[in-house]
Structures are given as C-alpha cells and as structure tokens.
Known about the structure:
- With 258 residues, the protein is an alpha/beta fold.
- It has a single domain, classed as Nucleotidyltransferase, domain 5, CATH 3.30.420.10.
- The protein contains ten helices and five strands, in the order βααββαβαβαααααα.
- The mean pLDDT is 96.
Amino acid sequence: MHSLIFDIETVPDVDFGRRYHDLDGLTDEDVAQVMFNHQRQAKGSEFLPLHQHRVVAISVLLATSKDLRVWSLGESDADEPELIQRFYDGLDRFSPDLVSWNGSGFDLPVLHYRALRHNIAAPRYWETGDNDQSFRWNNYLSRFHWRHLDLMDVLSGFQMRGRAKLDEVAVLLGFPGKLGMSGALVWDRFAAGRIDEIRNYCETDVINTYLVYLRFELMRGRITESEYQSETERLAGLLRTSAEDHLLEFLAAWEGGA
C-alpha cells in the first residue's frame, strides 16, 4: 500500500474577480462579495466556478507499509504556486495512488486551472502511457482507473443522485466528520488571517477520507478485518502521539463515538 489521501481548500481568486469585473479600487472582501453575488444571480448559489478558486491549503495523508503521516504542504505563509508545485512534485517523485472525496469533481480540476495559471509542470500526473506504458491502462486522469480513487464518485456508482457529503458518510460509519468547521467558512477564516485553522480543518478532512477509504478497502476485499483493525489502530496511535490540538480533538471525537 502506497496511498496519498489529499484535500484542498480554496478561496475566491479576487485578482481574477478584480480584473474580470473591472473592480479596481475595491478591497479583497468587497471583490469576493461581488463574485459571490454574480454567481448567486446566475446560478442561485454562491459556489464559484472551479476556475475562479484559489488554493490556500493542500493537506495529505501518506500511508505506506512503513509510514503513516498527515500534514499540510508548505508553511502557513506559502503562496499558491509553492503549494501546487509541492503536490505535483510528490507525484513526480513517488507516483502514489491518490485517494480523494470528490477529487475528480473539484480538487483536481481546480489544481489543473491553477497549475495552468502558474506555469507549473506536472509530467507524471499527465502521463497516459506515451512515456510510461504502465500508465496506459491505469493513470490519474481516467475516471474509471484506480491510480486516482475518488471515493464519492465510486460509492455513488458514478451517479449524481447517489452522491453524498464526506461529513455525512463519515458520521454514518462512526467517524467524527467535520468538527465545527466547513468549506463554507473558509473564506471568512482566510479573510480574518486564520490560515492555520483552514489547514487544520483540511487535515481532519483527509483523516476522515482515509477512514472511509479503509472501510471501502475492507468492503471490496482488498484488506482483511484484522488488517482493517490494525490500520485504524495505527492511525489512532499516530494521533495519540501528536502535539496538535486539532488532531487530539479528532481522536477524542473518534474514540468518544466508537
């Protein structure tokens, strides 16, 4: 097993909004509100088109037979190009299997647009077999390949009406889910300069995703019941040794709900 579970958090790309809507002189907060208002009038929702998002956090959980770690890429003051470059550099170096919740529908397309924006090369990610034959039938880009497993997509049977929220599925399975934070609050936290809260939230999302992934691997017979129990205990052990409050809070919620 060599899996990289990942999640991103985003805010409105106010530089784009300022240029596109001709809003010179407005603050970032005002530009963001204009962008939200335009989207609400057009679609009835403030959720912006994917190309209008800017990445402010990428968190990952690396699971191998010898290693289990969870962290956020870069330092809290790292800019967007550095975060995205670090993500793709990891794929170039290790070619891990990617696991996400709605990564095909949100995280990866956003990363595509932002990498394009910042001239970031990601040859391993875009490989489809021209240079490495092993990627011809199993690559990151094909919806029905397993090098990237979008749990939401697969568990819904690739049907829109079957989709569910990570928070609800995590709670369904007895895991903590979201602990007082959600994607809808990220812009407010970011505008207030509370980037560490966003990174912490992103890390707990990848832990929830990993727990759902382990249950999925058990369901499809890729791991045994004893292997499942061993891996969940390994994760709990990792959290117990953490000095990070948000990870200890997650552990307490997990053990309290068990």
